[in-house]
Amino acid sequence: MKIDSKLSENLRNNAFTQDFEVVNPITLDNIEIDKGQLPNGFEAYLTLYFENHLGVVYKPRALEQGLLAFFAENSYNPVREYMEKAYKNWDGKERLHKIFQYWLGATDNNGLTAKIAKMFFVGAVTKVYQKHVKFDFVLDIVGGQGVGKTSFLQKIGKEWYTDAVTDFQNKDNYDIMLKSLIVNDDEMVATKKTSFAELKSFVSKVDMEYRRPYDRRSERYDKNFVICRTTNEKEYLRDKTGERRFNPILVNPELQRKHPMEMTEKQVDQIWGEAVALYKQGFDLVFDEETEKALVEYRKQFTYLDEVESQIYEYLDMLVPNNWDKMSAVQQHQYTWAYFNNAVYRDEDGKEYEGVVLQNFVATKQILKNVFDIETAKGEKITRKIKLLMDNLEDWQEKRSRVNGRQVRGYFRKNIQ
């Protein structure tokens, strides 16, 4: 094969997709083979070709081993070659910090939009150069029906884009994903078929083990792609844990400068050229502590709250009288009822109670009684919900405190003013 130019110059191992490929159309006698992945019958075609031209018939096992050795010595990475070319031709102008604003009508969000953009694009570049590196962030493009969310991802992903993934567990989908750089869960079809625990686990993977079609055994493959999702639903985050992996960008067709369908190949090249430059400068694939805290607050607008959760949040934001801790359980409950019903609470002497401070400490049983008028013994389901919500609030810390002379488990507000 090495001395036959028809074979040696046109057959390559694609190191990115990990496929054997025909890089230019070839003809083996009367058999025409198109450019693309090596066809299933290639070994049979090659056997006939060798017999006709060399007078030799190789045993299937020997032919298979010979092919493996040949492809091992003849590899190329088209995505890396593209990235290097984009880097070489980059004009030095920064575009990533405004890319979502320009093409999708996103807002700046105090610099968070720019940080999310750079993290995503440099993360993708890193997967090209170091596909074994862990990158567990997901880009979520939210809202803006008609803005061109999918078109944007198709443009930047070029031929290494896919939205054909139906879930994150089916091994057939693994083969599709590993041939792509940009994997788009369009309208979150795959997400809706996957539990949140399974989704978090998949996003955090650095490799994927499965048996590719026609292989004899399963193997581990580096996860060489980044994940994006699109949705028109703004309040789409529904889990109270692990949401740090998901970085939403809220888009708006009324604010976009141009539709992604107008994006040219040259513009795409410039975008990737800048991303490669940042990668080569040692870009950190972890947000700093200040940015992480800002993202926690930022994601709240995308988090779905049911009625129970909304009432708990409202209770935590409720201003109470200065003597709140000295008020009886009945008085606290009556005050809360008045607050939720836009009424004024007065004691038996007609004195009006005015809310002036936030609560420094709340106990689960207080929330149960004051907000939902439920005794602790009867509120097991809501108790679990309260605990899950409170455990994941950055501004609250679980501790014990003394209430009415008894030690109770509850939560202290951090950094109360």
Automatic annotation (TrEMBL):
UniProt keyword annotation of Coiled coil present: yes
InterPro entries with a match to the protein in the record: P-loop_NTPase (IPR027417), VapE-like_dom (IPR007936)
GO molecular function, one term: helicase activity
UniProt KW ATP-binding keyword: yes
Coiled coil: 379-406
Pfam family, one: VapE-like_dom
Keywords: ATP-binding, Coiled coil, Helicase, Hydrolase, Nucleotide-binding
SUPFAM superfamilies: P-loop containing nucleoside triphosphate hydrolases (SSF52540)
Descriptive protein name: Helicase
